[in-house]
Amino acid sequence: MRKFTDPVERALAQIDAPLPPKNLLTRCLETIPEEGDWERIQDTMPYILAVDDEPNIVRLIQVNLERKGYEVGTASNGAKALAMIKQRRPELLISDVMMPEMDGFALLAALRRDPEYADLPIIMLTAKAQEQDVVTGYSWGADMYLTKPFNPQELLLFVQRILNFKDEGDNKVYRL
Amino acid sequence: MQSNDAKLFKQLKAGERTAFETIVQAHYGSVWRQHYLLCGDADLAADLTQETFLQAWRSIGSFRGQSTLRTWLYTIGARVWQRKGRPLICRATMPLPKTLHTDEPEPESLALQHIQWDAITVALQSLPDDMRLALILFYRQELSHSEISEALGVPIGTVKSRIYEGVRRLRRLLNQPEDAQ
After folding, report:
1. pLDDT in tens, A118-169
2. Confidence of residue A49 (pLDDT cuts 50, 70, 90)
3. Which residues of A touch B167 (CB under 8 A)?
4. Do the beta carbons of residue B139 and residue B65 sit within 8 Å?
């Protein structure tokens, strides 16, 4: 246990609560998945689609997310991403703004127009010099923004926040 | 990660039931206490504890062993509380003493401990939810600033200021001198 000399900090460290309810252990043991369920649970790591025409950025996103166990698909522009999304809906889309063929805003607009994807969480990436894009992106329905170059830890935090909230069906909390 | 934890995780990923049971038995009490100190309701804390374990099993695939099992569970517990417990904020059933202080003369060291174990619980409940959560995770559950930052999705500076401000407010509520540190 950490040691504190300050009485308030010491009291906080030593604060205790009563014993848990008697049936709690049984209830918690009931949460343990059955053998067949366990395989299914392990197979359901969120699928994330990363879209950028710069291969290094896509790779950076992919490596960092896969390291955390996420399944990551990649596309090099908005048109390819849209086709992939229609084949398999991701739990989260991470998209650059400036891309050939179909840029990030066009992709965002196409998804938000379609009721099926209106609630798909989207993180947009933009270069620092284009901060006006942030305002445009939010007004078109992006959930979060990251400016490039970004810290992979920050990206992971964003992903974690969005997916945790989405699991409970209340991702509107983070709809900005 | 401690070697015992590492072994348990390996067994967990392989779906060995005994590993799940060992983890539940070792930690259900402290996970419940974390929720209880946050919401003040024994039944709600029990629901949140059960939900914490459910979420833990679902997120085992993304765990890479940078923290201990205990920290991992407290972190998930914090998020469960933020999503499900906080909206219900229910403190009515927590048995609270009527006053924060006692006039009975007691040896100083004894008084500090006994009075504050009760009083600190009362005082904590008067703090904003985010501040209370940061204090409990840091002092009671012994998570680091960076672990709390990751759990709550806020910068480390925010975690530190919540803790600093929380302790400052508690000192005032408990009539402790500001420069006691």
Report:
1. 878 899 988 765 667 777 777 777 888 888 888 888 898 888 888 865 554 4
2. very high
3. 6, 8-9, 12
4. no
Q: How confident is the model at residue B179 (pLDDT cuts 50, 70, 90)?
A: low
The whole-angstrom separation of Cα A46 and Cα B12 is 19
The structure tokens listed for B159 are: 């975690």
**Are A27 and B112 inside 8 Å of each other by CB?**
no
CA–CA dist A147, A150 (Å, integer): 6
pTM, 2 dp: 0.59
The pLDDT value recorded for residue B90 is 44
CA distance A135 to chain B (A): 22
Q: Is residue A71 a contact partner of residue A50, using CB atoms and an 8 Å limit?
A: no
Among A2, A30, A31, A160, most B C-beta atoms within 10 A, so best to mutate, is: A31
> Taking a contact as any Cβ pair under 8 Å apart, which residues of chain A between 138 and 157 contact chain B?
157
Per-window interface: B 90-109 vs A, CB < 8 A: none
Highest-confidence range of A73-82, A127-136, B101-110, by mean pLDDT?
A73-82
Q: For chain B, give the number of residues.
A: 181
The shortest C-alpha distance from A14 to chain B (Å) reads 7
Domains present along chain A, CATH in parentheses: 7-36 (no CATH), 45-173 (3.40.50.2300)
Q: How confident is the model at residue A75 (pLDDT cuts 50, 70, 90)?
A: very high
Query: Which of B21, B120, B171 faces A15 most closely, judged by CB atoms?
Result: B120
Nearest by CB to A12, which of B49, B135, B180? B135
